[in-house]
């Protein structure tokens, strides 16, 4: 009786182990097969802006490595926080990503008291796509011929000039808020649903000036449809060698650059994050993809700087950096 019971228990245990092993193989196979369908990458701004351009360039190459198409979906609104919120609340299965940036994942907490996500806690960082220097630009017939004249003009006419931006919390808003604070001016702010629409109005002369990422501005500057006064980095950009730095042009304290990076919802499995990060690294090492980004003025990080941990550290540091700057400027 005892031996019979023992045999039955052993048989049951063996069967359970077999089922468990089968389930394990099934789950492992499912994870290994990722992705099995197209992936959506949310760009939280209108089509045509710098974040959109970078997302499409990177997604095109990543799709080849992953074997599934990455579909870019533009979800504009509230300085990029509408699309970022949707991404944060999506299923953490690797099929919804967001191309965030300095505004959505650095400046937004200081500008949106009721922000529905925490940049450092509600996302799984995938990797940094590109750094993007900031330019001070104006419509082509703006009176000032250089940055010193620009500063003097906007100070003397602060109540008359208008400044375009891609929405509260966007890079163009945050970086120009910093500029306005340093110059002690309060121009009329004209918000848009993205840099693309803002740039269109700058080209047509409907707005006076803006600050924004170099990506997307290079073709317009080279064509002479807008005027570039300075790049806010220590060194000139290879894509615009004739545009001086802010230090060279007489505004040494205005030093700022932006970045764009890929995030997944919090809880996305680490093996999926690893696959996505690998696809990103492969894309940024691809000669054609690199050239497209560099020609637009983008800055590509070294491999250690593209890791999920490096991006996590960047987000934490950016929130800490921009919170006092933006809260202080808005309280004046």
Radius of gyration: 24 Å
CATH architecture of the largest domain: 3-Layer(aba) Sandwich
Mean pLDDT value: 90
Query: What is the CATH class designation of the largest domain?
Result: Alpha Beta
Number of domains: 2
What low-confidence regions span 5 or more consecutive residues with pLDDT below 50?
1-30
For the biggest sheet, the summary is:
7 strands, mixed
Please estimate the helix content: 40-55%
What distance separates the N and C termini?
Answer: 87 Å
Can you walk me through this structure?
This protein is α/β, with parallel strands linked by helices. It has two domains: 37-131 and 259-330, Bordetella uptake gene, domain 1 (D-Maltodextrin-Binding Protein, domain 2, 3-Layer(aba) Sandwich); 133-249, D-Maltodextrin-Binding Protein, domain 2 (3-Layer(aba) Sandwich). The chain has helices at 2-33, 50-66, 81-88, 103-111, 147-156, 171-183, 195-203, 218-223, 246-249, 270-285, 287-295, 308-330, and strands at residues 39-43, 70-74, 96-101, 123-139, 162-165, 188-191, 209-213, 226-231, 257-265. The strands form two sheets. Strands 1, 2, 3, 4, 7, 8 and 9 form a seven-stranded mixed beta sheet that branches. It has a two-stranded parallel sheet with strand order 5-6. α2 (50-66) packs across α10 (270-285) and α4 (103-111) runs parallel beside α12 (308-330). Residues 1-30 have low confidence and may be disordered.
């Amino acid at each position: 009786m005892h031996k019979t019971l023992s045999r039955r228990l052993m048989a049951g245990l063996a069967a359970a182990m077999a089922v468990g092993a089968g389930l394990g193989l099934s789950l492992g196979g499912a994870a290994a097969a990722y992705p099995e369908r197209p992936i959506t990458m949310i760009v939280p701004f209108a089509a045509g802006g710098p974040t959109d351009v970078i997302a499409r360039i990177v997604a095109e190459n990543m799709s080849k490595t992953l074997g599934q198409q990455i579909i870019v979906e533009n979800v504009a609104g509230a300085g990029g926080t509408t699309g970022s919120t949707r991404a944060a609340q999506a299923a953490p299965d690797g099929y919804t990503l967001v191309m965030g940036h300095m505004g959505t994942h650095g400046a937004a907490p200081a500008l949106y008291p009721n922000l529905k996500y925490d940049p450092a806690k509600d996302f799984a960082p995938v990797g940094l796509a590109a750094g993007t220097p900031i330019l001070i630009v104006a419509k082509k017939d703006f009176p000032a011929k250089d940055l010193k004249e620009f500063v003097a003009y906007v100070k003397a006419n602060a109540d008359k000039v208008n400044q375009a931006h891609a929405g509260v919390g966007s890079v163009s808003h945050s970086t120009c808020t910093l500029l306005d604070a340093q110059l002690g001016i309060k121009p009329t702010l004209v918000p848009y649903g993205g840099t693309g629409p803002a740039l269109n109005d700058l080209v047509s002369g409907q707005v006076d000036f803006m600050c924004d990422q170099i990506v997307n501005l290079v073709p317009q500057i080279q064509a002479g449809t807008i005027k570039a006064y300075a790049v806010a980095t220590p060194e000139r950009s290879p894509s615009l060698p004739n545009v001086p730095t802010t230090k060279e042009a007489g505004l040494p304290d205005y030093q700022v650059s932006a970045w764009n990076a890929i995030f997944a919802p919090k809880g996305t499995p680490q093996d999926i994050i690893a696959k996505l990060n690998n696809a990103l690294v492969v894309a940024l090492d691809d000669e054609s993809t690199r050239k497209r980004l560099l020609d637009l003025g983008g800055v590509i990080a070294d491999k250690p700087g593209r890791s999920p941990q490096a991006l996590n550290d960047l987000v934490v540091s950016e929130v800490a950096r921009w919170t006092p700057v933006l809260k202080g400027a808005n309280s004046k």
